[in-house]
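R.M. (postdoc): so does anyone remember the format we settled on? I'll just put the structure tokens first.
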């Protein structure tokens, strides 16, 4: 419990600064930094030797991960107009669900097959093998991710101009931008923060405790626990895609967000 909570302390303090830094140095370097450090910290978790080293690494993991989700959401606004962002964000967020689908069985496989391999415990291999892809992905981001449509070599000149003009037209709309102090005095910002806090609390409950709940029901095989843990994420993938596409098609946001939250709450 404490180790899980310390992660979110680091996340809390570094989420906004990370996005502010992204605006200054660009998405490519910011997302690469996050992904590489995230992966290295995960690998380091395999070598914790005390409670304090565990707590420190959990804090660092939260601090390094903090800017990833809001950073990608911000990055997508450089490419897609507001009318398309529900489905685009839904497609992006399916990566979380797909990670749950793949990660659960993969973790079960590692825990059941890597016992004592190379003089390491199975849980150590879990951190190492799931941290390495993040490091590799970070270097790929650093090498290939274009900052904005104007830098995308895989678009034609006409396409780059069209996308850039569309986004620039939206960004120039009245009331589109505001300074941080004004935003902090905006009541709807805090309401959205409260709603998101509740949603993330539910997600954390599923992520942290689903395997324990399944085991308490009499399932002891780690592979089966991993497979069963993936079921909510399979359903979540389908639901997020449908909800995002339907929200854009109907140009409606509130009901789509509210119904998803209500159904998730009832499920918990």
């Amino acid at each position: 419990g404490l180790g899980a909570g310390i992660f979110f302390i680091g996340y809390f303090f570094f989420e906004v600064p990370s996005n502010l830094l992204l605006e200054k140095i660009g998405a490519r370097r910011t997302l690469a930094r996050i992904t590489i450090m995230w992966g290295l910290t995960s690998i380091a978790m395999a070598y914790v030797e005390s409670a304090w080293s565990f707590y420190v690494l959990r804090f660092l993991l939260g601090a390094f991960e903090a800017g990833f989700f809001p950073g990608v959401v911000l990055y997508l606004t450089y490419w897609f107009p507001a009318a398309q962002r529900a489905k685009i964000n839904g497609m992006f967020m399916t990566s979380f669900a797909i990670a749950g689908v793949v990660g659960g069985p993969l973790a079960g496989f590692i825990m059941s097959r890597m016992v004592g391999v190379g003089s390491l415990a199975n849980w150590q291999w879990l951190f190492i093998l799931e941290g390495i892809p993040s490091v590799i992905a970070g270097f790929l981001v650093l090498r290939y991710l274009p900052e904005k449509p104007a830098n995308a070599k895989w678009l034609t000149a006409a396409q780059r101009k069209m996308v850039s003009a569309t986004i620039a037209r939206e960004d120039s709309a009245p009331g589109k931008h505001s300074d941080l102090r004004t935003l902090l005095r905006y009541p709807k910002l805090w309401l959205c923060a409260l709603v998101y806090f509740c949603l993330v609390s539910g997600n954390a409950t599923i992520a942290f405790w689903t395997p324990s709940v399944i085991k308490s029901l009499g399932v002891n095989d780690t592979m089966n626990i991993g497979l069963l843990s993936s079921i909510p994420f399979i359903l979540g993938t389908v639901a997020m895609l449908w909800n995002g596409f339907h929200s854009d098609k109907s140009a409606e946001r509130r009901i789509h967000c509210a119904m998803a939250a209500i159904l998730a709450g009832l499920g918990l």
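R.M.: ...and that's the designed sequence above, right after the tokens. Also worth knowing: The mean pLDDT is 88. The chain has one domain: 2-165+182-267.
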